Amino acid sequence: MRYTSVIALDQRAAISAYAVDPRLAGDVGAYWSLTVTDPPAHIRVVPDGQVDLVFDLNSGAANVSGAREQPTEIVHEGPTRLLGVSLVPGAAAAFLGIAVSTLSRDWQPLAKVIGPVASQLAHKLCESESDGARLGVLESFLLARLDRVGLGDARIRRALQEIDDTDGRIDIAELGRESGVSPRNLSRLFHAWVGLSPKRFARIVRVQATIRRLVEPSPPPLAALATEMGFSDQAHLARELRAVAGAPPSELAETFKCSADTFKL
Questions:
Q1: Fold (topology level) of 154-258
Q2: pLDDT tens string 109-152
Q3: Hey, what long-range contacts does 242-249 have (CB within 8 A, 24 or more apart)?
Q4: Do residues 107 and 89 touch, judged by C-beta distance below 8 A?
Q5: What is the rounded (10 degree) CA torsion for 170, 171, 176, 177?
Q6: Cβ 196 vs Cβ 47: under 8 Å
Q7: Which of helix, strand or coil describes residue 109?
């Protein structure tokens, strides 16, 4: 799965994404860092269905946030050093041992979810002297949990793959048939493993795919793009992008193209 998820709206924040160990590639979307040395800094977060583990390297806090449904703009008012892990849709429930629907969309202490090991991990990360060393600590932690929890539910993985393969343009009843579950069970599985309904997640995936087309070097005209992505017309496309990504197509295209600090995963 690919996501265009986070952007720095000014030059006061530096955002970097790092390669993921191939053994974790099916579960981790990215490792990322965010640094603000000259606050305030404005960050836009576009919903992507991922769950984030966020470690504050200044304070030592470890937090987790669930899958977002709405676009969010975050202002960092003070100097900031964050290191994060984005868990792809369907992976967090196994790693964390809880239903993803129970996670807050906002940050909450990771220790409330996985216990004292969260504080121990944050302490090791703060003690590490380089990004490379910190990523090594994170990878060791995640690989150990992956060995323990296994691969998760095959039905939800099939459903997520179908949604991704179709860029979110799939009938939910058909999705249930393809995944081998009833519509009611599909909804239950999605809330437990993704934290969103299948319809809401498919909507987010379609908007994500539309943004990727918008930021291509030669994107199609909006009317043609609306037809390509299964919207009823150009106005429908614009409404969906405003609702899910928080801005009209022209603003999203310009902002994401111009920022060097955009995640394009």
A1: Arc Repressor Mutant, subunit A (1.10.10)
A2: 999 999 999 999 999 999 999 999 999 999 999 999 887 665 56
A3: 244/46, 244/47, 244/71, 244/203, 244/204, 244/207, 245/46, 245/47, 245/71, 245/207, 245/211, 246/44, 246/46, 246/70, 246/71, 246/72, 246/73, 247/71, 249/214, 249/222
A4: no
A5: -90
A6: no
A7: strand
For residue 87, what are the β-bridge partners? 28, 51
- Provide φ and ψ at 199, rounded to 5°: -65, -45
Q: Average pLDDT, whole number, for the chain?
A: 90
198-to-141, 173, 227 alpha-carbon distances in Å? 30, 10, 22
Which amino acid does the sequence have at 255?
Answer: T
What is this structure's pTM? 0.91
What DSSP element (H or E) covers 224?
A: helix 222-228
DSSP-derived 3-state class of residue 63: strand
- Contact predicate 71/246, CB 8 Å: yes
Contact in structure between 54 and 82 (CB atoms under 8 Å):
yes
- What is the residue extent of each domain of the chain? 6-149, 154-258
* Separation of alpha carbons 29 and 3, rounded Å: 8
Under 8 Å between Cβ of 161 and 124:
no
| CA atoms lying within 13 Å on the CB side of residue 81 | 11
49: left (phi over 0), alpha (psi -120 to 50) or beta: left
Compute the Cα dihedral for 35, 217, 169, 9 and give only its sign. Answer: positive
